[in-house]
Design a protein that fits this description.
Two copies of one chain form a homodimer.
Chain A (H helix, E strand, L loop, with lengths): L1 H17 L4 E9 L8 H23 L4 H14 L19 E7 L4 E8 L5 H11 L4 E3 H10 L13 H17 L14 E6 L5 E7 L9 E2 L9 E3 L3 E7 L1 H6 L2 H12 L3 H16 L3 E7 L4 E2 L6 E8 L4 E4 L4
Amino acid sequence: MLRILGAIALCFASAAMSAPPIRLVIHGGAGTMSRTELSAEREQAIRADLERALRAGHAILAKGGTSLDAVTKAVVILEDSPYFNAAKGAVFNAEGKNELDASIMDGATRKAGAVAGLHRVKNPILLARAVMEQSKHVMLIGDGAEVFAKSVGIELVDPKYFRTEERWKQLKEAQAKERASASVESTEKSAYFGTVGALALDRDGKLAAATSTGGMTNKRWGRVGDSPIIGAGTYADARCAVSGTGWGEYFIRAAVAHDICARVEYRGDSIEQAANDVVMTVVPELGGDGGVIALDAAGNYAMPFNTQGMYRGTIGADGNVSVAIFRD
Amino acid sequence: MLRILGAIALCFASAAMSAPPIRLVIHGGAGTMSRTELSAEREQAIRADLERALRAGHAILAKGGTSLDAVTKAVVILEDSPYFNAAKGAVFNAEGKNELDASIMDGATRKAGAVAGLHRVKNPILLARAVMEQSKHVMLIGDGAEVFAKSVGIELVDPKYFRTEERWKQLKEAQAKERASASVESTEKSAYFGTVGALALDRDGKLAAATSTGGMTNKRWGRVGDSPIIGAGTYADARCAVSGTGWGEYFIRAAVAHDICARVEYRGDSIEQAANDVVMTVVPELGGDGGVIALDAAGNYAMPFNTQGMYRGTIGADGNVSVAIFRD
């Protein structure tokens, strides 16, 4: 009997040793942000929300939940926070509306869901997931996406819900600057950060990626960035998951998320090498900037950015939270 | 003097020899099509329009024009033809509207333009090109995209322009089948072909890719397929250009166009090997089908499809047109 118990114990230990380490990595946007502009209160609040998202996702992974559930939960918390450019707290477009995009991808099956041009969906990432799981489609846009949302019971809210005074002020400032410079797009370069994203590796060794954004302040013409584009802002397969944040046009042109995973698969690059090369070389050479988070199936991760800062954090099996904003 | 003339002649000959061979490759959609269903008249008309698109693009390349101009011209001709599922002759969505998507990419600069959810733009590929060249954005959707179209003088038409009786009949049949089977999406699998695309290699060795579509018959909820997704339906870089046609959801999930180019770049696959592997293995393993055209900077090309047929054709420096529909 003792021998049997011993064998069972050994069996558990070996399972525990061979199981991949769970891991959650999140970002709350890369961009121009100086230490002096960020008040101590605001920094504390942002760090607290990042930590809350990490702990909530970790709780799911720690009890054997899926990477999909973990990234969904983490992104919902960041969407609900007013401090990030996603759902509540999203930036305003040129018409004074909040226009939301999101996408999610399941690495094991490469199923994906994406939504763009939403005005009333409280948590766009939940709609992206519903598109993935409850429709035969991958991408739905605009009013049609909201009709689908209603049909599957996704919560719609009055568009006023998304409004924060700070974002409204940013729009007014951007529009004043635009009038002063007589240039339509002069204010956009520095106005596109705050996108949120999450990657997770679960106990079964499966990866998932999710991204959600309000896009660029003062954006026009139904502009869509990289966040809802599978392969640009979000990608996940069996060995690699990526979520991006930055100047979306350049992330689309470089197919950033898929390119990182392709380098890992076809060239045998480490996740760190692949993410660094794309973020620090490919995107800047095209003229863009931003950052990504990237995670592989062994739990290795990278969080490169070529901007002043990127809200980011990670948590592993030990439950120790690490959160950072600048190049510490 | 004679020696100088000789040197100049040699110089020209060597330039002619080292110049990459110009090449245009087009498709008019892959799908389920049987020889018996296709009348001789219709086949002749389709072949004639494919040939017309090839000759028009070739005329541009032959006189030193750019690959971008050649793919634009070829796609405009296919959009204007009622025989393909793009612009004039596009399929109807579930609301009885024609809803159009397109994208274009310049390999040398990796600049790109994409549009989705259009109802009034006569030639979506011209709007995609205007987005690339006259805005700082890559992707515009819906009404906003049409506001931009107006602002840059792109032709808008009454939505009735796109209507053909044949496509209307297809919608009514799809909806009747749907009612009979009480399944919302049962008719969609076979209803998504006819997308058009073009790739070109110009005298400067530069590649371009373009794709335009009406999407799936009876589509709902602002569904967007792979055609306007840079990296999925369209991609071009310095060494590789791809345009896809097929079940868009699977083409997005596999990032088909970028994946083919990544295999060429990172693994050294030939364009044929890369295109075949993705179309004949990766996409079917996920559960999808369709085809692509792919072209490299040396003028090598591939046109694999895993469906019954794919409208396709190519023309090279010699001006000989080759057009095919089935596996001949």
